[in-house]
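All the exercises in this workshop are built on plain-text protein records. A learned vocabulary of local backbone shapes supplies the integers on the structure line. Once this layout is familiar, the rest of the handout is easier to follow. An example says more than a description, so a record of this kind follows:
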Amino acid sequence: MQAAPAPTVSPASPSLRRAPRALWRLTCAVLHVLHGLAIVLWRFPHLDAAQRAARIGWWSAKQLRLLGLQLHSSGTPRPGATLLVANHISWLDIAALHAVVPHARFVSKADVLRWPLLGRLIGGAGTLFIERERKRDALRVVHAIASSLQAGQTVAVFPEGTTGDGRSVLPFHANLLQAAVSTGTPVQPALLRFSQPGQPFSDTVEYLGDTSLAQSMWRVACARDLAVHVQLLEPMGTRHADRRALAEHLRETVAAALADATRSA
């Protein structure tokens, strides 16, 4: 009688094999968020602006490491009042930019306030929130940005207004740029890019369509050798600029830097 063939066992999927490491990364990241909340609630009231920025930079860089990301940066943050303008890919963008420009205040959609833990933490870091569904709210935020710039602060915005796939740069909306034009504040463009070995653009971090925050976090935690690249470009003046022409020029500048980065990747 012929023996029955031994059953074949299919190898575990990559996501299952990486599950223990992903769970460990997410656990460490959540604990780090709680630590950050404690700093914001109890330490920030007793710290000056420079001390707060130092802790924001430390916290952001460590959060990227805990999630398995390597940070690569180039360029120098412009000192003094600056409107920092970057392309937008992921919920990780703020941490990546804060690790390089820790003194920046961000403008973010109000939906972030509903994110568990992260919403309170991002708000505690001085973020300005905008209700994108309410057109009139943009004017309020423009005034808030202008006040911050006049106070000598750096404010960071994502003028695409939504996340892209990182392979191209979406059109820049000009509304928030009015704050820099009105106050004569220089604008510094910045390029964000996520990569993995053999992939100049990693689709792991894409935060598009119906992708939930939990799904995106799990993909990031499962990833191997994920890197984020932050390139600060040369600042440009805004005096007497037309905000729409400025928006297009900034988009072209970031897109050209993206093309250069792609060729050299």
